[in-house]
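Q: Please design a sequence for this.
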């Protein structure tokens, strides 16, 4: 067993695509790092544009520079966070011989949804999702689009039948959010629950007000 494998008991791939809602993906990566999970981060070119528009962040174009940039921003331990380029076919996520424990596309465009449903694997995000599916690992797609066409819905149904978790970015309001960050945390909390990663983002339904969240 390698030193890296023994240190990080779990590995989750997080992919950010060009849908609105890059805050979800950033917060998810932050929470996973904070929980001691190793994170493989994939950022599409469109996501880099959206990150600048929505969050004011300019992510370096080169994978190595982006890795150092994200590792510092997310306070990752050495070796805990890796960033791979969109055509970096030597990345671990490109092969079924070294799959992560799970993958989350967050946010997920309907274009990425379509590519995954069709098994195209034209870039590393599509290929990584294909690998996770064929190896029987958990794949979560946080869809961020509205309204949805019959094509979108049929692609979701096709993937859901294959065991993929379809999780639209539809935050609830029963917990009386007061900040945008609260709405982001609502979705991220649901993702973490499906990954079985402990968190303290929100209280749970049926708990008394002020109960200690887990």
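A: Design:
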């Amino acid at each position: 067993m390698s030193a890296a494998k023994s240190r990080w008991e779990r590995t989750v791939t997080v992919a950010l695509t060009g849908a609105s809602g890059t805050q979800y993906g950033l917060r998810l990566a932050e929470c996973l790092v904070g929980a001691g999970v190793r994170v493989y981060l994939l950022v599409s070119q469109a996501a880099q544009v959206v990150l600048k528009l929505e969050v004011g962040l300019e992510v370096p174009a080169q994978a190595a520079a982006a890795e150092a940039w994200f590792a510092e921003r997310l306070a990752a331990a050495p070796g805990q966070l890796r960033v791979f380029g969109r055509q970096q076919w030597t990345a671990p996520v490109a092969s079924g011989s070294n799959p992560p424990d799970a993958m989350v596309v967050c946010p997920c465009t309907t274009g990425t949804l379509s590519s995954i449903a069709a098994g195209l694997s034209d870039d590393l995000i599509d290929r990584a999702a294909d690998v996770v599916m064929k190896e029987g690992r958990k794949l979560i797609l946080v869809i961020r689009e509205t309204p949805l066409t019959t094509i979108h819905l049929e692609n979701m149904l096709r993937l859901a039948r294959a065991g993929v978790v379809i999780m639209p970015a539809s935050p609830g309001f029963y917990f009386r959010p007061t900040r945008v960050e609260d709405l982001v945390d609502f979705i991220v909390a649901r993702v973490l629950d499906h990954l079985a990663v402990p968190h303290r983002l929100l209280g749970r339904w049926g708990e008394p007000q002020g109960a200690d969240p887990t």
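Q: Thanks. Anything notable?
A: The two ends are 31 Å apart (CA to CA). Residues 180-194 form the longest helix (15 residues).
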